[in-house]
Amino acid sequence: MVVWTASIALGAAAQLGKDRFLPWAMQVLQVISARVYVYNDQILIRYTCQYAISSIGKIIRYVPLHKVASNLSDIIPQWLNLLPINLNVDNEENDIVIYNLCSIIRLYINECFGQEYEHVDKIHQIIEYYITIKPQQKQLLSQTLTFIKDIIRSNWLNMSELKWYQLSHTLNIQS
């Protein structure tokens, strides 16, 4: 229960404090991430960890981590690998995760996509999952998917032919 309460409080502090939260952001991310990676299948622990995952997204979105974190290209993919969460009991938290995901993709394009676009498939899977379980968020998710396709389409010369082929088929991009 303490972890759940702390996760919610720290996520809210990051959201409201933004750059004032910066001095503690990396420590908080490390502590929350460590807690998330050790959770097991017990319902309460899974529920707590999903709130912690949501709080990680709030920190990434609202705190200007690029000022202190040289490893954003590690932090963001680690967070993406924890998604999607599915809090059936709290649809509002799912909405928050979706809003944060869509914003983070736009704020940190390179870190989200990866140097070789290696995270785009995972992002696509997350978005498709949320479109399925949260149809009321379909417009935002579809706009984000269109944004991703536009970025991929405009950067196709910077990727291998194989990667372009894979992404264009995965994302259904017409050349």
UniProtKB/TrEMBL annotation:
SUPFAM superfamilies for this protein: ARM repeat
Name the UniProt record assigns to this protein: Uncharacterized protein
